[in-house]
Amino acid sequence: MNDEQLLRYSRHILLDEIGVEGQQKLLDAHALIIGAGGLGSPAGLYLGSAGVGRITVVDHDRVDATNLQRQIAHRMERVGQFKAESLAQSIVEINPEVQVDCVTERADASVLARLVPQASVVLDCTDNFATRQAINRACVEHRVPLVSGAAIGFDAQLSVYDSAAGGPCYACLFPPEAAPEEVRCATMGVFAPLVGIVGSMQAAEALKLLMGISSSLAGRLLMLDGRSMQWSEIALRRDARCKVCAGNHTVRPGV
Fold it and tell me: Cys-Cys link to 139, which of 64, 146, 185, 190 (CB 3.0-4.6 A)?
């Protein structure tokens, strides 16, 4: 770490839980963000500003004027641009040292099979149930921790799924065969600051995982009622009959 980096990240380095060693872990890490919208925007900006050395952003969608109410990484002049490229541009404007790779393809099984094994942590910032399941399957298969967030209307939820550490996966809680009726922001709406709250918390959980700070949301689901600003929490357990992670008991090295 050079003198400029020591200065830039000094407020992290001053924290006993982080220090120079923890900051170096961030500089050496690779975060994969899937979805560059309401959740991916704050998550990406905080990961970049915190010094995660490499960030890959996946999103096949383009910036629309209706996104600007909540997707804070984008600008009016970028309407029509790929969201992944717009988020990458915003990250680099904050921290030019970060290597940001853009993937403007849909996050299908083949794309995930290529990208997930390269990542230190995956952030699911999507709004599609089938895509969430595909991301979870890839993370279980390649033993990469998953930070998952969701927000719609005034309601949000957040958790960490790390089956390689012995915890439940996303499918333990939301089985693939029990697909809910899809509800999208375009039809129901979303309270603008809500995605900022959840996306920022996703970044916080990802940073802790990358630095090896032991306390995380693994095994817990946080739910936020944005009307009353009240959090509730439920404990999660691994489903021994889960069709995704039940046969995968290999513990990730270092866990």
Answer: 146
